[in-house]
Amino acid sequence: MLSFDAEGRLLTWFSPPFAPGTLYKRALDSRLLGRRQHGGQRRRWQANEAEQERVFAALLGAAAQAQADLASPLLDRVLAWTPARLRAEQERFAAAYAPVSILPPDQYFAVVVQATRGCSWNRCTFCTFYRDRPFSVQTPSDFAAHLRAVADLLGEGARLRRSLFLADGNALMLSNGKLLPLIAQARAAFPGREVHGFLDVFTGSRKSVADWQELREAGVRRVYLGLETGHDPLLAWLDKPGSAAQATTLIHDLKAAGLNVAPIFMTGVGGQTYAAAHLADTRRLLERLPLGVGDLVYLSPFVPHGDYAARARDSGVLPLTPAEREAQAEALRGFLRAHKPGVQAARYDIEEFMY
């Protein structure tokens, strides 16, 4: 089973003849992510150059074989994408984007526009997504050039992408005076799409309900908040600013402004030391949040990155087993089913992200 965008570029290939049961996903820069079940576990990998070459060559052969039977003008577009041309998308991607480090799973097929670069905090011990770049805000002229480059890269493939994601990390923290013109530019370049973006609790708390209402009127629909945990001592141990009380106030304000929210919690973070308090206080926080239909709660299996491992070792914090981590996630899913009907809980696996 193969899928392509309207330009004819590969999106996914499930169970190719040379790798039954494998799913390949191609990123916009033509990196390939492979995935299959092995021994009851999901195995993932990024294809090396040799594997990528084999997949792209086999893809061209499969398209040619199908075209012999179908004589489809749509397959003519697919056949135009030789392996060399697909690989060259890496350069076109680099001309349009700084690295797109992470997105929420429901926004993997958004049009990503980088109003900011990097993260305004960028000091959480567990996160390395933006360590390779300082935080900066695009000027209107630079942003306009970026939008043109993105439109050129996506081409007809943009038709598949029904929303706008305002990147990078925490772009929604900008003052409305800076943010509103950038949103207007993005929506003019990619009309008919609602806007989504990340926000942290510390900077998001500076805006009023009226500020958020203004952003909703400008097209913002859902705000994604990396809350991580409802346990304040664990937040402090992770060097993550904010608190459960601040998160509660901010989400009440966002909901009062008519926005949907998607709080993100990490299951397994803090290991054995913090497990009981992390689960108990996260439940208490969820109970206080005014979540309803249209809101999401993401549960992200914790993957240690950055300075976390050294801090855990120095503090004697032992990791949860995969089974313990999954039990923590199921406890939170069960709590949401019982106490927040209509709110969808979803898995957020950062190891499966590709844009």
Question: What does the model show?
Answer:
It is a single chain. With 355 residues, this protein is of the alpha/beta class. The chain has 2 domains: 2-90, no CATH class; 97-352, Aldolase class I (TIM Barrel), CATH 3.20.20. It is 41% helix and 20% strand. It has 13 helices and 14 strands. It has helices at residues 49-70, 73-79, 83-87, 89-96, 140-154, 176-189, 201-204, 209-217, 232-237, 244-256, 271-288, 308-315, 322-339, and strands spanning 2-4, 10-14, 23-26, 32-38, 41-46, 111-114, 116-117, 136-137, 163-167, 194-199, 220-228, 260-267, 296-301, 344-347. The strands form 3 sheets. Strands 6-9-10-11-12-13-14 form a 7-stranded parallel beta sheet. Strands 1-2-3-4-5 form a 5-stranded antiparallel beta sheet, with no helix packed on it. The protein has a two-stranded antiparallel sheet with strand order 7-8. Strand 9 (163-167), helix 6 and strand 10 form a beta-alpha-beta unit. It is globular. The model has no long low-confidence stretch (mean pLDDT 96).
